[in-house]
């Protein structure tokens, strides 16, 4: 069994001022037009730091005061 962490990122559909987020911005973050992204990676401190930094990138890209990034322990059999 391998230890992994799942990071879940909730992307906004609208900017804070109410304007809709363009599909191009969503594609810039992930190729599909998904609002929820899941990323499963081996559990490591470096991964935590990457997603903390990436959150700041997403906040600027989507002009948001906050974007939630959660992580959960998962086990792969």
What's the number of helices? 2
Describe the main β-sheet briefly. Answer: 3 strands, antiparallel
Q: How many domains in all?
A: 1
Oligomer: single chain
Strand content: 25-35%
| Spatial arrangement of strands, main beta sheet | 2-1-3
Helix and strand composition category:
alpha+beta
**Average residue pLDDT:** 86
Rg from alpha-carbon coordinates: 14 Å
| Helix and strand run | EHEHE
How many individual β-strands? 3
Low-pLDDT stretches? none
Euclidean distance between termini CA atoms? 5 Å
User: Can you tell me the overall shape?
Assistant: elongated
Helix content: 25-40%
Task: Write structural notes for this entry.
With 77 residues, the chain is an alpha+beta fold. The protein has one domain. Helices cover 31% and strands 31% of the residues. The chain has two helices and three strands. It has a three-stranded antiparallel sheet, with helices on one face. The termini are close together. 4% of the residues are buried.
